[in-house]
Amino acid sequence: MSAGASLRTALTELTGVRHPVVQTGMGWVAGPRLVTATARAGGLGILASATMNYDELAAAISEIKQRTGAPFGVNLRADAEDADRRVDLLIAEGVRVASFALAPRQEMIAKLKDAGVVVVPSVGAARHAETVANWGADAVIVQGGEGGGHTGGVATTLLLPSVLDAVDIPVIAAGGFYDGRGLAAALAYGAAGVAMGTRFLLTKESTVPYDVKQAYLGRGLADTVVTRKVDGIPHRVLRTELVDTLERSGRMRGLTYAARNTVRLRRLTGVTWRGLIREGLAMRRSGDRSIAQLMMAANTPMLLRAGLVEGDTDAGVLASGQVVGMLDDLPSVAELIDGIVADARQRLDELAKLR
């Protein structure tokens, strides 16, 4: 099977990439180097912008465009203080895909689509997929409970078909994918491709410190935990001493972490206090979250930064999908994508023989 062989799906047709493989917009991980490597290898690389201020985002987009002419995407926070300005930046720079962790406003989707930008929100339930599809989203990413970071409680094998039954737009499967078997299975379900986070974090081009990558590779299938003590909502991370401490800690200790990290996050991202309050109120209106939980939201980026950027596994949190227990290598992004696609093609060919 040729390493250059591809698989044409609704995702590749929609975005212009060669392979139906998406590298997700992981904060502190999905920077210009990883996104460029993914784009060059024919996948859809998504730049994480939530942990960047506006100028850093503009510089990152410029760097990627200088290094490759292939399509790529940018992940935006729809509730960010300067979300509209960032949307304008994507349009001006000709970014191919805008992805969102939280559903963007209907008018924001319309503005992006009118400018030719493909809009791909992430969803955690069929009803959410129906909502953004009705608003005009071009595709959705659906992550099952196996996935790392913020995640739900329904396994991909059930969540994926429920979303596929609910909408007519392309659906990209996430949560538990890492090889050609997974891609072939997702396509058999009816998905247009797969999205992966942990698998791309553990590649040569990932900027995560080498010692931290080795800490991931040493973990098994049972070595992640879903905790609410990071920011008040379910978050799948590696089991560490810090996470165990947070799990045992009381409310006041969590709020102390939150207050300190809110100040640090504001300094890093440049967001104003007024903007933070507005974002918090918007988050509260969109979900059942207490004021304490909203305060804790600043814990996520700062605790992730300590582990994934600074390499301090004692002071940081390491987001991870359960798939970490199946990984034992650090391939290049090109080796990873080529291998996944070639293996998926071979497995689909074998399945065709069963007829």
Give your account of this protein's structure.
The protein has 355 residues and is α/β, with parallel strands linked by helices. It folds into two domains: 10-207 and 328-352, Alpha-Beta Barrel (TIM Barrel), CATH 3.20.20; 220-319, no CATH class. It has 16 helices and eleven strands. It has helices spanning 10-15, 32-40, 54-67, 83-93, 106-114, 126-135, 156-166, 180-189, 198-201, 210-217, 241-248, 251-269, 273-286, 291-296, 299-308, 333-352; strands spanning 21-23, 44-48, 73-76, 97-100, 118-123, 140-143, 149-150, 171-174, 193-196, 224-227, 235-238. Strands 1-2-3-4-5-6-8-9 form an eight-stranded parallel barrel, surrounded by six helices. Strands 7-11-10 form a three-stranded antiparallel sheet, with no helix packed on it. The longest helix is centred in the last third of the chain and has 20 residues, at 333-352.
Spell out the key features of this protein:
single chain, 355 residues, alpha/beta, TIM Barrel, 2 domains, eight-stranded parallel beta barrel, three-stranded antiparallel beta sheet, 16 helices, globular
How does the SSE layout of this entry go?
Layout: H1 10-15, E1 21-23, H2 32-40, E2 44-48, H3 54-67, E3 73-76, H4 83-93, E4 97-100, H5 106-114, E5 118-123, H6 126-135, E6 140-143, E7 149-150, H7 156-166, E8 171-174, H8 180-189, E9 193-196, H9 198-201, H10 210-217, E10 224-227, E11 235-238, H11 241-248, H12 251-269, H13 273-286, H14 291-296, H15 299-308, H16 333-352
Parallel strand pairs: 1-2, 1-9, 2-3, 3-4, 4-5, 5-6, 6-8, 8-9
Antiparallel strand pairs: 7-11, 10-11
Helix pairs in contact: 2-3, 3-4, 6-7, 8-16, 12-15
